[in-house]
Amino acid sequence: KRLKQQSTATTIATVALLAVAILSEPLMTWVRKPADCHSSDGFDAGTAAAGLAAAGLEGRWALDGERSDSMTDFLISVGAPRVIARLVGKTGKPVTIAVVGPDRKEVSVTVEGKAAEVLSVAEARPVETPGGQVSATLKADGLKPSGWGSAPPQLRSFTTVKLGPAEGEKTTEARELAEDGSMRCAFTHENPTTKQATTAVRYYNRVV
User: Fold this and answer.
1) How far is CA 87 from CA 69, 70, 92, 93, 191, in A?
2) Alpha helices in 55-179 (DSSP H)
3) Between β-strands 183-190 and 170-177, what pairing exists: parallel, antiparallel or unpaired?
4) Positive or negative torsion for Cα 49, 55, 58, 60
5) Distances in Å between the alpha carbon of 145 and those of 102, 124, 149, 152, 194?
6) Which residues of the chain register pLDDT less than 70?
7) Is the pTM of this model over 0.70?
8) Cα(79)–Cα(59) distance, rounded to whole angstroms?
């Protein structure tokens, strides 16, 4: 009995340590939110907003849960089980965006823990989704099929259109740099069965 109590205590302690590690992890990542621009540390809102805007959309972004819509209805529309959609609807993993390729005419979108989606304005690209493979096209401000060259303008907005996997199914992901330096993302799914469009708008803050 004493050994069993010791084993139980050890298990509880281990779980507690894991919980602390998991909960503490986000605290190790500093995210400068627009609302944090007024503080006693001398942080200047105008200078910070200008600096963030100058960086464009390239970089790493973290979800601003307070300003973002839940993705529950969107996930249900694309075919996710309702229980799963409700569990993860308010969550969101960090996203990294970069202009890539030898001619810098591609945009890479990487959600933490998933393979990068490398999209091009020159051609449609196959992209794997939980529901199956889709065909993705890219439209980006100032980005041409010939590329940007060695000194591209800053990426301030781009839209990805994904067709499939079902016939008539369409998903649009529109990302743009907001005036306060955050990233606004509008995700719209057009369901070919219900003939309805479901949209969720989410905001991300730059990780600095």
Assistant:
1) 14, 10, 11, 14, 22
2) 72-78, 82-88
3) antiparallel
4) negative
5) 12, 12, 11, 13, 35
6) 1-55, 142, 144-153
7) yes
8) 30
